[in-house]
Amino acid sequence: MGAPGIVAGMTDSPANPSPVVVVTGANGLVGARVCAALVERGALVRAVVRRPGTAPTLPGVQERVGDFPDPDFAADVVVGASAVVTTVHPMGSPLEHQREIGVEGTPVIARAAAAAGVGRFVHVSTAAVYDRSPDVGDVDESSSLVGDEAGDYPVTKRDTDAALAEVDGITRVLVRPPAILGPGASSLWNTLRPAAVRDDERARHTLPHQTFSWVHVDDLAALIADVATGRIATSTDPGAGPVAGGCTPVNAAAGPATNRDYHGAVTAAVGVEPVWDDGPAWTGKIGSARAHAWGWRPQVDLEQALAELDAGLRGPE
Predict the structure, then answer these.
(1) What is the annotated signal peptide range for this record (predicted)?
(2) Consecutive 10-residue runs of the chain (317 residues): their mean pLDDT?
(3) What is the pLDDT of residue 6?
(4) Quick one: pLDDT at residue 91?
(5) Which of 52, 138, 244, 261 gives 20 to 30 Å between its CA and that of 117?
(6) Contact 90/153 with Cβ under 8 angstroms?
(7) Angle at 32 between CA 30 and CA 35, to 5 degrees
(8) Which residues on adjacent β-strands are paired with residue 286?
(9) Which of helix, strand or coil describes residue 74?
(10) Are the beta carbons of 121 and 168 closer than 8 angstroms?
(11) Strand partners, 243
(12) What distances in angstroms separate CA 70 from CA 78, 149, 313, one per listed residue?
């Protein structure tokens, strides 16, 4: 048996130490992919989950069962880590629970990480924090955020970002993806939304010309892992890298698409007719120039992502 927290088969010599990265929500769609991407980069991963036996079973991954908003658990799990990645947000739950986990809970582990001398804190936020009203054009990291009337999820994610901006003593990066495509039982866009479209006529309505901003989960995980392991160096300029000791948002969106692209693929795969509505819609794009300047290049294009979605919904022939 190796030392606690070190998995057999992984080297961690003083001359070339493996980074130790804590990942919350390690059994989720994004969290599991981040764990895999970190392992590919030679990191040791402390995979935080709430239920035993649910962390990814990968070399270099150690399961840690607990609640990251608990100060004692948070202080223990970050000891000796080089980075923390938080992926948890109870989307669709009551507002009070979203605030408890996001706005109140996520800063707990961020403060614990800062107190323990952890170098980086990477939080999976969302592009839903941006105001994307019909008359708003393209948005980037400097664009206006949503108002209080935008809905529970965007507002609590906005407020979680603001709370993390107040945590001192650690480099924080707020990664903001739009719709996340990729297979998985918990995938909103590959599994849950298509099921609603299949089963509920109301879910078949959409504005076809509205922008569908998206990113593939594997490309998102690659960016997060590169930030967490330090492959993307810090900088004094957010255009060149995360600001050392600061809080830097970065968008992670792939190529252009519309609701017609996504909704058309889903309805065709589940065997129902789409309902194309008419009305004002946001038709801008989520600018990812900052992520590109940091060296991130999405590898999955729209054709590949939609083909994967189609195959998953139709199942084996």
Answers:
(1) none
(2) 29 60 97 98 97 96 96 98 95 90 96 98 98 97 97 96 98 98 95 97 97 98 98 97 98 97 98 97 98 98 98 84
(3) 29
(4) 84
(5) 52
(6) no
(7) 110
(8) 139
(9) helix
(10) no
(11) 235
(12) 12, 30, 38
**Unique residue bearing structure tokens 């006529």:** 201
What is the per-residue pLDDT for 317? 57
Strand order in the sheet with 120-124: 61-65, 44-49, 20-24, 83-86, 120-124, 171-176, 247-251
C-alpha span between 312 and 315 (Å, rounded)? 5
The full set of domains in the chain, from first to last, is 20-180+214-253+284-299 (3.40.50.720)
At 303 the pLDDT is 98
Whole-number pLDDT of residue 9: 28
In 105-235, which ranges are E strands? 120-124, 171-176, 179-181, 205-206, 214-216
Q: Other C-beta atoms within 10 Å of 123: how many?
A: 28
Q: Residue 286 has what DSSP assignment?
A: B
Contact by Cβ (8 Å): 127, 183: no
Which residue spans within 92-234 are E strands per DSSP?
120-124, 171-176, 179-181, 205-206, 214-216
CB distance 276 to 261 below 8 Å = no
